[in-house]
Amino acid sequence: MILTTTHSIDGKIIQKYLSIVGAQSDEPTKGPLGSKLGFGGALEKIKERAADFGADVAVGVQFVGPTAHYYDTIHIYGTAVKLKSND
Question: Tens of pLDDT along 42-80?
Fold first, then answer.
């Protein structure tokens, strides 16, 4: 599952927008780069939620999290999409 902050995938056509998907970290982040588990597992969670909708990709992924300090929860959201097949 590709997660991208862009709103398109080069060379691919979005066939259908499925749903907005989101996730949050299981644990506080550990410094400016987050934990080794992908921001407390949030990256894996958003991939799973997009896959539940039958998505190929999640586009427009945004990260909302620590601003004043590094021990907040990270929130991730994006749009689950189905790509047009190359048939």
Answer: 888 999 999 999 999 999 999 887 655 555 678 899 999
pTM exceeds 0.70: yes
Considering the four listed CATH numbers 3.10.180.10, 3.30.110.70, 3.30.930.10, 3.30.2350.10, the one that applies to the domain covering 2-13+20-83 is 3.30.110.70
Helix H, strand E, coil C: the string for 32-81 is CCCCCCCCCCHHHHHHHHHHHCCCCEEEEEEEECCCCCCCCCCEEEEEEE
Tokens at residue 75, please?
């929130």
